């Protein structure tokens, strides 16, 4: 029996489209982090800079304001600063968002939230963000029969929208750039990260890792030692991996197909 996963993973499906990564690369990998956590500024970005690697950081006004100089420095260093909403609305089932639950949102309220954050982004950094990450990976507003996807609102405003804790990586030939799959790598060791990369390489896919804190250990923390092994592996030309920001890879995908 052909499983859903087998259909998603079929290299033949990708080959039939004629899509090719640049310079003979086998796959693309993007490293992303959410929420503008302080550890990203204190530990993560300096670590990436030492390794000559650019990440995509989905940041919130209430958090980026705590380290404005650091985030402006990250932008100068070539990292992508991306959009993560104004107020981080998620399901009302989460205690931290009980008063800001998506179930109580209208489509118009969600659009206002997105536009308010974009205005703050332009004011603070002088740029308009190209990439967006759905807070908690959730892409709806409303309840029951009135539930509505807000992917269209993201598609109107951004080059990409990234999910979280999704079950696959992205087929560059057919993926919806406004509804990209994100693979969590917080609390993962290098062997687990490599398993995801090996699948993406075999199938010619775009793997978007998504994390939060950056350090050694702790809740929702991308382990920097494991990340160093990932970077070394990706930089080895023999492995054929294109490691770049979400906006850079998405721009190539949009043009190539």
Describe the structure.
- By secondary structure, the chain is of the alpha/beta class.
- It has one domain (25-256): TIM Barrel (Alpha-Beta Barrel).
- The protein contains 10 helices and 12 strands.
- The protein has helices spanning 4-9, 11-17, 38-51, 61-64, 68-76, 107-125, 151-157, 190-203, 224-235, 246-256, and strands at residues 27-34, 56-59, 80-83, 131-133, 140-141, 148-149, 160-162, 183-184, 206-211, 213-215, 221-223, 241-243.
- β1, α3 and β2 form a beta-alpha-beta unit.
- The longest helix is centred in the middle third of the chain and has 19 residues, at 107-125.
Give a short overview:
This protein is of the alpha/beta class. The chain has a single domain, classed as Glycoside hydrolase/deacetylase (TIM Barrel, Alpha-Beta Barrel), CATH 3.20.20.370. Helices cover 40% and strands 17% of the residues.
Please report the distance between the alpha carbons of the first and last residues: 31 Å
The poorly predicted ranges are: 1-10
* SS elements, strand count: 12
Query: How many separate helices?
Result: 10
Give helix % range. 40-55%
């Amino acid at each position: 029996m052909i499983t859903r996963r087998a259909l998603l993973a079929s290299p033949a499906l990708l080959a039939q489209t004629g899509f090719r990564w640049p310079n003979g690369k086998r796959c693309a990998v993007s490293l992303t982090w959410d929420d503008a956590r302080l550890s990203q500024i204190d530990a993560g970005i300096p670590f990436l800079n030492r390794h000559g690697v650019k990440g995509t950081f989905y940041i919130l006004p209430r958090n980026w304001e705590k380290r404005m100089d650091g985030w402006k420095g990250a932008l100068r260093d070539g990292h992508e600063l991306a959009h993560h909403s104004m107020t981080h609305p998620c399901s009302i089932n989460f205690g931290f968002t009980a008063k800001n639950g998506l179930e109580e949102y209208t489509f118009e309220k969600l659009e206002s939230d997105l536009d308010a954050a974009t205005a703050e982004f332009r004011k603070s950094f002088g740029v308009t963000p190209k990439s967006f990450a759905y807070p908690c990976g959730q892409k709806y507003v409303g309840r029951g029969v009135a539930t509505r996807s807000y992917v269209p609102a993201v598609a109107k405003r951004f080059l990409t929208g990234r999910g979280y804790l999704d079950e696959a990586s992205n087929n560059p030939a057919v993926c919806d750039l406004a509804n990209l799959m994100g693979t969590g790598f917080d609390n993962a060791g290098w062997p687990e990260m490599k398993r995801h990369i090996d699948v993406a390489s075999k199938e010619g896919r775009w793997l978007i890792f998504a994390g939060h804190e950056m350090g050694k250990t702790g809740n929702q923390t991308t382990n920097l030692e494991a990340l160093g092994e990932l970077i070394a592996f990706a930089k080895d030309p023999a492995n054929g991996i294109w490691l770049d920001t979400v906006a850079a890879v998405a721009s190539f995908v949009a043009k190539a197909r």
